[in-house]
Design goal:
CATH superfamily: NAD(P)-binding Rossmann-like Domain
Largest sheet: 7 strands, parallel
Number of helices: 8
Strand content: 5-15%
Distance between the termini: 35 Å
Structural class: alpha/beta
Shape: globular
Radius of gyration: 17 Å
Number of domains: 1
Oligomer: single chain
CATH topology: Rossmann fold
Length: about 250
């Protein structure tokens, strides 16, 4: 079977675990050469071991210096990036927005909103050089509807959704498409962290049941299901698709 991204250069932020790792593995499986970026050096090395011809950069998604270094490294070692998946993100505290400390709010928005903006700013010039590009930012179903458990996280992901639409309009004439993926509850580290914030085992189970009750398919998603959707949005098959926020959520937002 032909690998449909053979020889193309991609970059993935948040590549050390969860949805970012699943996306990186899927890109590599389809033949892309991938720049892997994350602050978790050990996790990043594990992802790289499963991604042939990948290059790693350890850094903070909210640091303009680190993100610029990642873009420069990609250009020097792999060539201009034309596929970008911005998966780096944090959950933040599970409490009402007005109960967050200022530093908690600032850190949440630095990673979840400033991070995607920095990535777009760093990598879009390389796409211009190539004459084409495709970007997928990671929003959330919480970026489409409010969240009673994660209200500040929801606000940050709502910002990502609107950043996606604005970037799509900014760069359509340059043949650069920008979309975002909106995962529902997906098995993995972020969901585990969300449930852990609920309290003891009984409280965690109660929260899980509340979450399941709102999903028509009556199950949580898997990272590979998100990665498959990301590959579609990045790939040529979605060549007439830009500016969308695609829910992959088991019907939660239907």
């Amino acid at each position: 079977m032909t690998r449909r991204l053979e020889g193309r250069v991609a970059a993935v932020t948040g590549a050390a675990s969860g949805l970012g790792k699943a996306t990186a593995l899927a890109l590599a499986k389809q033949g892309a050469r991938v720049l892997l970026f994350d602050r978790d050096e050990v996790g990043l090395a594990a992802t790289a071991a499963a991604c042939p011809h990948s290059v790693t950069v350890v850094g903070d998604a909210s640091s303009s210096v680190d993100v610029a270094r990642a873009a420069e490294t990609a250009l020097l070692t792999l060539g201009p990036v034309e596929l970008l998946a911005v998966a780096a993100g944090i959950l933040g505290p599970a409490k009402p927005a007005i109960e967050l400390a200022e530093e908690e709010w600032d850190r949440l928005f630095a990673i979840n909103v400033k991070g995607p903006w920095l990535a777009a700013r760093a990598f879009i010039p390389q796409m211009r050089e190539r004459g084409r590009g495709s970007i997928v930012l990671f929003s959330s179903t919480a970026g489409l509807i409010g969240s009673r458990f994660l209200s500040a996280y929801s606000a940050s992901k709502g910002a990502v959704t609107m950043l996606t639409r604005s970037l799509a309009l900014n760069h359509a004439a340059e043949h650069i498409r920008v979309n975002c993926i909106c995962p529902g509850t997906i098995n993995g580290p972020m969901t585990d962290a969300s449930f852990a914030q609920a309290g003891d085992v009984a409280a965690q189970e109660a929260r899980a049941q509340i979450m399941l009750s709102g999903i028509p398919l009556r199950r949580f998603g898997e990272p590979e299901e998100i990665a498959t959707a990301v590959l579609y949005l990045l790939g040529d098959e979605a060549g007439f698709t830009t500016g969308i926020a695609l829910p992959v959520d088991g019907g939660r937002t239907a």
